[in-house]
Amino acid sequence: MKVAVAGCCHGALDKMYETLELLQRRHNVRPDLLLCCGDFQAVRNEADLRCMAVPAKYRHMQTFYRYYSGEKKAPVLTVFIGGNHEASNHLQELPYGGWVAPNIYYLGYAGVVRFRGVRIGGISGIFKSHDYRKGHFECPPYNQQTIRSAYHVRNIEVFKLKQLKHPIDIFMSHDWPRSIYHYGNKKQLLKMKSFFRQEVESNTLGSPAASELLQHLKPTYWFSAHLHVKFAAFMQHETNSKEELPKATKFLALDKCLPHRDFLQQIIDVEHDPNASDSLEYDAEWIAVLKATNTFVNVTQSSWNMPEKNGLHAKWDYSATEEAIEEVLEELNHDLKIPCNFTLTAACYDPNKPQKNMEPVHTINPQTTEFCAQFGLTDINDRIQQAKEEGSGRGECEEDEEEEMDSTGSAEEPSEYNTDNSGLSSFNPDEIMLDEEGGDEDLSTCSVDPSPDHPPEFSTSFSDIRIMPDSMAVSSDDATDSNNEELEKSGGSKQVEEKSSTERSLKRVGGDENGNSGIKKIKRRNQAIYAAEDEDKTD
């Protein structure tokens, strides 16, 4: 089976599918499946644009809406995860996954499906430690904090994935697993992206949560995007016992959507079951894990740790037994086919009747309602609405609660990662940096510039700037991780912004408010990044 893998397509679906069709005409290569590793941008209308965490100047309609409306249909089954530049309100409708358009399937916050016998898993979003232990409390209309925290990875999703015991063939994450760069041509990587050096040498580039999953799941393939650079690695895993067969993972990080010559190199042959269904299917073990962990659904901002074998929890193993898996199969009459139950849940963009003042609303998607009813799961969005109505949600969606958005809960409760958030308070470097760049206006009045026929060059807008936090293991990690988003949105070097946000947060805690030197350093460092972008534009 031929599987095409794409990096950040930034809503340019026409371009992506046209590239695949060109491959077929010129090289007689036709993929059976297309995987996209985040920043898919399933934008249906102007309200969705307002829920995408990018400066207003990058809010362009692109072409997804044509597939959502039915004007066009994806020529190949497409499965994708979320990144950090998404219409978060749209994807939030499908926390357990679902169809965003005919033949285009979203894996949800985390998910596992099967296609022709191949197990495909993924986790959406990017890692940010100060949101990692919170629940999924966000809902539209978002404020300046929740528009970003909505796409941050949560520990509940990692915990669920770690309950899987059966082998995974393909796994996707948006940000890279931390340390993966040590298993590939690191010298060439740093030659292409010299500003990664500090993070690579200090082993702080990438997501520690993704790294944990990589070591646990040991998939045959792992695909990521986010940093806009192509990079391959081969990781040989350690065995836990003499009886266990050695396993290895082939890692590939994808660049942004590329010309057909490069796209051809991103098509792999994957062994599949010729007798398996040609339809996308549920994974019985994953459904069983969802059922076993359903009681952990959290829609509050309170920080909490998942059960561990540390003497503090009576139970920590929520993996699916063979009996539980068989029970799922019986519930489905051994028919695992995912129903083609796509439903329009929002008005579609009409280029002849633009509605720049359209406001986002919190929507419960019928697909999620049906899925939860079928398997006895909690509809996260329904729970959020209940919390709002009962007044017990602590105002998760109210803007007057912004100062609480960075709360990390009880200081006595240990985190799963060695992170110290004590120097952060409610300081949000995302907003400040975006404001400095003039990119993030009030969400209620931001301008929208749909241009479906002449889309902007997103590849240049975001190239060379998707750098993960300078450190996620020191007091500045939350602030620096935020800079990953800042830079992706404002076009600067994350590594540099990490330094400035670190300096600012430390100065704030120490009472020194004369923190302008960090900003100057950012601007000087950005000159090198912008120069790199200019080089990309001329290539």
UniProtKB/TrEMBL annotation:
Gene Ontology biological process terms in this record: mRNA splicing, via spliceosome
Coiled coil feature spans: none
Gene Ontology molecular function, alphabetical: metal ion binding; RNA lariat debranching enzyme activity
Gene3D superfamilies from the UniProt entry: 3.60.21.10
Entry's Gene Ontology cellular component terms: nucleus
Stretches with biased composition (Basic and acidic residues): 387-396, 486-511
Keyword Glycosyltransferase: no
Alphabetical UniProt keywords: Hydrolase, Iron, Manganese, Metal-binding, mRNA processing, Nucleus, Zinc
Keyword Zinc (UniProt): yes
Subcellular location: Nucleus
InterPro entries: Calcineurin-like_PHP, DBR1_C, Dbr1_N, Metallo-depent_PP-like
Top-level taxon in the UniProt lineage: Eukaryota
Residue ranges annotated for the Lariat debranching enzyme C-terminal domain, each copy included: 235-381
Acidic residues compositional bias, start-end: 397-406, 432-443
Reported cofactor(s): Fe(2+); Mn(2+); Zn(2+)
Region: Disordered, residue numbers: 387-539
A Pfam family matched in the record: Metallophos
Biased composition (Polar residues): 416-428
Protein name: DBR1 enzyme
